[in-house]
Amino acid sequence: MFKKAQLPIQTMNLVVGFMVWVILSSLLSFIIEDIQITAQQAAWVTAVPVILGSLLRVPMGFLTNLFGARKLFMISFLLLLFPVYYVSIASTFMDLIIGGLFLGIGGAIFSVGVTSLPKYYARDRHGFVNGIYGAGNIGTAITAFAAPVIAGAIGWSLTIQLYMVLLGLFVVVNFFLGDKHETKVTTPLMEQIKGVYRNEKLWLFSMFYFITFGSFVAFTVYLPNFLVNNFELNQVDAGLRTAGFIALTTFIRPFGGWLADRFHSLIILMYVFAGFTVAAMLLSFAPSIGLYTIGCLTIAVAGGIGNGVIFKLVPMYFHKQAGIANGIVAAMGGLGGFFPPLILTSLYNLTGHYAIGFMALSQIALASLVIVIWMYYHDKLALSDQVLKNTPLGMMVTDQQGKIITVNPAFSKLTGYDKKESVGNNPNMLSSNKHSDEFYTHMWKRLATDGFWQGEIWNKRKNGEHYLGWLTINAIKDDAGETIQYAGVFSDITQNNKSSSV
């Protein structure tokens, strides 16, 4: 029961954490009526919660593996009570900065769920599961929409204090419903860091998430005040539009994870960064509210899908160091939301518009698109390199399900099947029917336990002729030690073993 309940409970925890994380940006238009601050100071007030919300994600992922999600969520919500109250009675710019910094704990808890939840599900569901959990981002939309409405009725200070009740409630929920027996991982922190920091994929995934999730955070904290000042919308209308952006990004994230479970993740990321490039270029031309809305919605869709895809890739490549890898990638995503509001405000003060900032986003997205294309074809070339084209030994590579991916020329010469006939087929097309089911059961058992099988096997050529082969099968593993493909190498030993029998 407790295991099945963890996905909805942890998702709701993230909703609450993100609701608290964006209190200041959602209520800033109300707060500045009582606390006089400049436009530059307002940018810092909205950006500061992102700092701790990003940097804490690294230790949060590691600590989740040590102590479990239940304790981490409870402690985080208890700690948040203090900055929430402090912000509610703030009277100066420095009060908002200090309180806002520690509100970042609400954003840092993202690492808890993405580290904990994959333990409860099969690997082929990690993309969708992390996508569902990531939908907890909707907490930012709830605050962006509801907080201004409530503040209009009871004032911003009392509105913020209401969040203390919500935090206390979820401390109780986690105490009674959190999993007390979550699987722990006790690998030392430095050992985990050493296991991932030299892997270029970690930093590429971090850069991709810097753009996809960073854009989500940046637009979340930047839109409410921008829409009021630039398009002269009222505070509730601006909050509603921001909530729509957040909701679209959030609800499409599980779809991105679902796509990554079923299709090649890098191909999906190509479409994601192409969308970012075009949308950011549109926004750089300072369009009307209608075109601006189209650009923002395109960013929302691309960002949501990208967020889901990336957290399918991270546990796939870093299964044994998921806590620290999730934390690092998530931290970079959070930092991606810290700089844009500050940069955009500074550029606006210098130039009177935001064009340069959005054009920079389009160019970074374009560079990411090029890198993703390179990664995709590099992986294909790496696979081709494993097939030794000039060897006299027949070779074939299959996926996890046994479907043939590629063969070499020697395979075609030995079996009579050319590459077009072989790719997409199953190796049982070579079956001679001379072996019992127990023979193949033993073969697959050895592959599962040792990652290796070698022995004699009777097969059949395309023309129906039987031959005795010496076959070696190796499991090909990824960086996390998980089998992703099988490579078979064989030769015809019929003439040397005329006396062989099954």
Which tags fit this structure?
about 500 residues, alpha+beta, Growth Hormone, Chain: A, Beta-Lactamase, 2 domains, PAC, nitrate assimilation, transmembrane
Your description of this structure?
The protein is of the alpha+beta class. The protein has two domains: 2-180 and 189-382, Growth Hormone, Chain: A (Up-down Bundle), CATH 1.20.1250.20; 387-497, PAS domain (Beta-Lactamase), CATH 3.30.450. Helices cover 69% and strands 8% of the residues. The protein is built from 22 helices and five strands. The chain has helices spanning 2-21, 23-31, 39-55, 57-67, 69-88, 93-103, 105-108, 110-116, 126-134, 138-154, 156-177, 189-196, 200-231, 235-262, 265-284, 289-317, 322-335, 339-351, 355-386, 409-415, 419-422, 437-450, and strands spanning 394-399, 404-407, 452-460, 466-477, 483-492. Strands 2-1-5-4-3 form a five-stranded antiparallel beta sheet. The longest helix has 32 residues, at 200-231. The model has no long low-confidence stretch (mean pLDDT 86).
Stretches where pLDDT is under 50 for at least 5 consecutive residues are none
Class of the largest domain, according to the CATH hierarchy? Answer: Mainly Alpha
Helix share of residues?
55-70%
- Percent range for β-strand residues: 5-15%
**Annotation, overall tally of beta strands:** 5
The number of distinct structural domains comes to 2
CATH topology of the largest domain: Growth Hormone, Chain: A
3D shape: elongated
What is the CATH H-level superfamily of the largest domain? MFS general substrate transporter like domains
User: Biggest sheet: strands side by side, in what order?
Assistant: 2-1-5-4-3
Q: How many DSSP helices?
A: 22
What is the average per-residue confidence, as pLDDT, rounded to a whole number?
A: 86
Give the class from helix and strand content and strand pairing.
Answer: alpha+beta
Which sequence of SSEs, written as H and E, runs from N to C?
HHHHHHHHHHHHHHHHHHHEEHHHEEE
Characterize the biggest β-sheet. 5 strands, antiparallel
The CATH architecture of the largest domain can be named as Up-down Bundle
State the distance separating the first and last CA atoms.
50 Å
- Report the C-alpha radius of gyration, rounded: 27 Å
